[in-house]
Input
Amino acid sequence: MMLIKRHSLRAARLLSAFAAFLWGSLALAAQCPLDQGQQQFRFGTTAKPSGLLVPETEPSGDYGPRPLVILLHGSGATGEAMLRDSKLAQTAQRHGFLLAYPDAGIPAGQGFVWNIPGIPTVTGEVPGPMDRDDTAYLVALADALVAAGCADPARIYATGLSGGGRMVSWLGCTVPARFAAIAPVVGLRAGNPSAEDRMRPDPETCEPDAPIAVVSFAGLKDNTNPIAGDGGDRWGYSMHAAEQRWAQLNRCTEAPTTRWIEPGLYEERYGGCAQGTEVIARVSVDGAHSWVVDNEAMWQALSRHHRD
Output
């Protein structure tokens, strides 16, 4: 009887060890095979680069594809500079999400600008048909990371500064089903300024086919993209007009609320929106035209949204 028990115990231990080995092997196989740094991926008939940060540690108990945040630089800058200035890499390492930081498609000075159809860039020129389709490019980047087994298609997010924030807003207008949420920084838009009245968004230029969560950040002392709007061709209407339009697009039913998060920081929020979406704006009273973001708060807001 004792011999049988010993053999049973030994068999159980061997089975347990084998199961642990098998689980570890599967976990390693499921990890993203790409290395940190510049990656090449197919876009059309050519290979295009994008910076990619792959966290060193896996989120607790999560060995499958990771959440992906696509980080877009401001006008005239680069992905590398945006990675440095945003300090979002530390948040990615802490929470285990992938962070892609590509360059825009139109060269401008020492950096690049994003192609938002119908909107002049900081050079004063409106992108033309020969300029790269940055919407298609960013969708292709996300698709490539999903196909590689790195990114979870249900948890893809986009954030960006200034011109990058406007590009992120454009993604929400044109390909909302590809993203679980967007987070424009000093760049929230809801379509192009109306030709009849630059202080109003043109509804025909932002007609998303699905609701999308919008989490934006702004500085009250921003003189480049002022919260109140400037009536110009490139910025135009106020950030509040953009919030109201997104609340309408997301079919939000609750009255907007404003609350202080802490001294010098308040939040405007529309709730009761379709498919669990929301429209949030956090405003830094002393913030200017810069990365006025609490990265932890941004990640918490983004990560609570998934696509089915």
